[in-house]
Amino acid sequence: MRPATREKLHSLPVDDTIVAVRGVDKSYGSTEALRGIELDFPRGRLTSLLGPSGCGKTTLLKIVAGLLDADKGTVMVDGKAVSGPGPERAFVFQDFALLPWATVLRNVAFGLELRGVPRGERDETARRYVAEVGLSGFEQKYPHELSGGMRQRVGLARALCVDADVLLLDEPFSAVDEQNRRKFQEDLIRLRNTQNKTFIFVTHSIEEAVYISDRIVLLSPRPGRVSQIIEPAIDRSGDPERIRRDRHYLDTVEEIWQGLKQYVD
Amino acid sequence: MTLFGRRVPAMASLIFWGVLWEIVGRTGIIFILPPLSDVLVAAVDLVRQPSWQDATVTTLRAFLIGMALAIGFGIPLGILMGRVRIADELLGMWVNIFSSAPLSALVPVLMILFGFGERTIVAAVFLFAIWIIVLDTRAGVRHIAPSLIEMARSYGASRPALYGKVILLAALPEILAGIRLGLIRGVKGVVIGQLLVSIVGYGALFETFSRNFRMSQFWALTIILFGFALLVAALIERAEARIDYYAGARE
Questions:
Q1: Do A157 and A169 fall within a single domain?
Q2: I need a labelling partner for A92 at 20 to 30 A (CA). Which of A38, A108, A198, B22 fits?
Q3: How much is the average pLDDT of B40-47?
Q4: Nearest CA in chain B to A91
């Protein structure tokens, strides 16, 4: 195996890029959240945005989602400039954002419901994704009857259900307990291999980013800027448990930690 | 409540005051207070009379129309204030003033505007009930987690879907609380309106009873009205309890 490699921006061929961020600035009042962000997200890969709090990683993800407008610059998805949310992108929320009055099945099908897909058809699709995230048998439960980990599985199934090309995940496991988080990370690796989708994943956990990502974008805070891009060369084909003992995994975690240490208050 | 170390059932205080009323009434010290038993007899007698039945129909109709208008205008106004900052800043002060102002003072103005009839009563119910509905709806909308609205937007919700499928339902517990309080205030509105107009419905009855010192009928009518107000509140509370099972879990 190769050691962790660093590469320059734009090293990938252009036609492999699904999401392109070009010169994005964003301020909240006098606070500069993002400055001059230039990023390419390769198709079919899992890219993490990693950084300490205040580095604007969630802001960047929401700009890509079309939930926030950039002050300057553009986001292109499949060559088209983003002006708002679109069906080719689906969002997974940190606090799950489930409808408390709706069953698991209806929550999962909600994206399709909003698109006007008929009841029978969308329920059938939703059932498939409920099973995909391992929640079969819970279709008629309500969110408050589920654990935090199960709720986020519902959020993930909802995002898969609309069949978007790009999945945007905003610290999806931060409100989930440790055991569930590990299980989730393993499932995400499996989903990435089977679903053929592009994942953009925001996290503040170095271990999590290294464990799941093909590519890690390190952001530095105040203002948020791209400081480094890392591609951990970790073989994820075998037993997911083994990755956590992999030497490259441990080395990459250490290397990123050394780089981020200076931002710790 | 406990008394001398024993638990006393909730109804006990009601019985205590009932017995006290009966005793004081029988001594005849205060002429406006006949014994409770007389009042209950009068109540049974009262509900049989066509004058009471007509008054009840008139009162109920004015109450229901006024409430329907208050709910129909109050909820949209509350949602507007909860969502649109400029609407909140323009209207917030007035809604707060009206929700705590002594609105009885405005009923004479309503009489000038709407005449001495049912329309004034409807307007009084509306005026008494709407403000708390607006305030609670606004609070409910403000209380919605921002991520729920982002979720709806990111999955492509149209504006009607965003309001109909997410915002209205997410704010429903507070809206129902507002409606419950609004109904109680609406009962006040209908009574005060009718008393001031005094030729319509219960107002006319109250006027007749008190002017002729028919105290047992007067108290019977009062008890019926209190009972109605409590019944309405209890019904809404039951509906709320059914909604609460998710409201409590929505954090």
A1: no
A2: A38
A3: 87
A4: B154
Residues in chain B closer than 8 A to A91 (CB atoms): 150-151, 154-155
Domains and CATH numbers, chain B: 49-247 (1.10.3720.10)
CB B81 within 8 A of CB B87: yes
Identify the band that residue B37 occupies on the pLDDT scale cut at 50, 70 and 90: confident
Are residue A65 and residue A128 in the same domain, yes or no? no
The two tokens of residue A53 are 């709090």
d(C-alpha B54, C-alpha B71), whole Å: 26
The Cα B88–Cα B94 span in angstroms is 10
Find the closest chain A residue to B157 by CA distance.
Answer: A114
* Rounded-to-integer distance, Cα B214 and Cα A209, Å: 83
Q: Are B154 and A66 an interchain contact pair (Cβ–Cβ within 8 Å)? A: yes
Among A142, A163, A184, the domain boundary falls at A163
Size of interface A-B (CB pairs under 8 A): 65
**B7: which 2 tokens?**
């638990």
* A4 vs A243, higher pLDDT: A243
**Residue B251 pLDDT level (bands cut at 50, 70, 90):** very low
How close B82 gets to chain A, by Cα (Å)? 19
Q: Is A63 found in the same domain as A181?
A: yes
The answer to whether the CB atoms of B145 and A97 lie below 8 A apart is yes
pTM given for the model: 0.80
| Domain extent at residue A152 | 99-163
| B113 vs A: CB within 8 A | no
pLDDT of residue A4: 46
Predicted confidence (pLDDT) at residue A7 exceeds the cutoff of 50: no
Q: Are residues A56 and A183 in the same domain?
A: yes
Contacts of A100 in chain B (CB under 8 A): 170, 246-247, 249-250
Residues A239 and A204 occupy one common structural domain: yes
- Taking the C-alpha atoms of residue A231 and residue A252, their distance in angstroms, rounded to an integer, is 9
Residues of chain A whose beta carbon is less than 8 angstroms from a beta carbon of chain B are: 62, 65-67, 84-87, 89-91, 93-95, 97, 99-101, 110-111, 113-115, 142-144, 158, 162
Per-residue three-class SS string for chain A: CCCCEECCCCCCCHHHEEEEEEEEEEEECCEEEEEEEEEEEECCCEEEEECCCCCCHHHHHHHHHCCCCCCEEEEEECCEECCCCCCCEEEECCCCCCCCCCCHHHHHCHHHHHCCCCHHHHHHHHHHHHHHCCCCCCCCCCHHHCCHHHHHHHHHHHHHHCCCCEEEEECCCCCCCHHHHHHHHHHHHHHHHHHCCEEEEEECCHHHHHHHCCEEEEEECCCEEEEEEEECCCCCCCCHHHHCCCHHHHHHHHHHHHHHHHHCC
